[in-house]
Design a protein that fits this description.
homodimer; alpha+beta; four-stranded antiparallel beta sheet; 9 helices; 8 strands; DNA-binding
DNA sequence: CTCATTTCTTAATCCTGGTTAACTTTTTTG
DNA sequence: CAAAAAAGTTAACCAGGATTAAGAAATGAG
């Protein structure tokens, strides 16, 4: 069922029936059970993953052995280690499902083939990367212009539904602080509104 | 003198003579004097800028009125606000030369035209954005796995030449701490090597 | 339904780096 | 070359979150 992906692509570029069929032919769909992995440290990242349903996380282990989440992947987002995927070098990231998920995979090989068969897709992925880049810029800004507490409160107002879906310690990890601290600020009334 | 740019592009994709000429035709070169601006808050970002020579910075003003540098642009790097450039919405960033600089500009209009005339360039910019994305990921990692002091010491060992070129307070701003703190750690011998 | 595991909470203590402010050195400009 | 502006230094005090540890609550598996 690659319809969701085709629909997403069509929001950025316009595919003909034939092109859409080629995209679909190069994509495979995978069910990922909660807590299962799409990538583990030391492996080469094999594919770019489009989340149709469910939620994944991308994290690395820091020197204290903590899992630091750098990205969540929810419906209609791509998740991968572009660096490892592109260079073929081993990744130090983990990609794991935090809910049962349905994912469309485009392997490195299919990806390269896709660029040849449907050159328009080059543009699509340029736009996807531009969007990811803009998101990263914004995240840097928040990191440096807000206190941890403010960042948490803002996140909750921006994505109230998402906060319900994930354990708190993962949100703390994503926002860059400890679960203890998150618990602390949840336990008191807001002073400043973010 | 767009040779530097063409050479750079050819490291990622292969342009024919004709294609290279079209790229050159759509690019304009500008000399930017130290402290002059390519973008100021409230303006719409007009172009993507390729640094041939010199050094620029991209920063925003936080709520305390401090200039927080999110990116430096040195030789062979692109610098722009992709979000504003793409959407046509006003930027809240500033791009400023911190040395006399020579810059190749590709305006939004030229950019769009370029993608039509030389579709290969779509791929080039996808790869450029991929590189920027990878750099952002790495920066997130360092931010969360190292103390400010370690990050400073690592930066100095990785880019000793660059550190010489810029004022310390800009390096502090880029690395995410205060000039006073930078001065403090410079004034003492390293305890842990980063 | 019960036991084991995972997740969340609370509190005491500590530390990294911020803030403020005054001063020194360097760079720029007329 | 002199004065002004910009950049860098030092130090006292402070605060936002980390760390550690122990227990409580929720979730899941058999």
């Amino acid at each position: 069922m690659t319809d969701t992906l085709i629909a997403h692509i069509n929001k950025f570029i316009r595919l003909t029936e034939d092109e859409a069929a080629r995209v679909a032919a190069l994509a495979t769909t995978v069910q990922v059970k909660k807590k299962h992995f799409l990538l583990q440290p030391g492996e080469v990242c094999r594919a770019n993953y489009f989340v149709v349903k469910g939620c994944l996380r991308l994290y690395f282990i820091n020197r204290n052995g903590q899992e630091l989440i750098t990205q969540f992947g929810i419906e209609n987002w791509w998740i991968t280690d572009y660096d490892s995927l592109e260079t073929g070098r081993p990744s130090h990231y983990t990609i794991q499902a935090i809910e049962d998920a349905e994912v469309i995979c485009i392997s490195k090989r299919s990806f390269d083939e896709l660029m040849v068969q449907v050159p328009k897709m080059e543009r699509y992925f340029r736009l996807i990367l531009q969007r990811a880049h803009t998101a990263a810029m914004r995240r840097f800004e928040y990191l440096r212009d807000q206190s941890d507490e403010e960042r948490y409160r803002q996140f909750v107002t921006l994505f109230p539904g998402f906060v319900q879906r994930i354990p708190q310690y993962m949100l703390a990890s994503y926002l860059g602080f400890t679960p203890q601290f998150l618990s602390k600020i949840r336990g008191k009334k807001p002073t400043k509104q973010a």
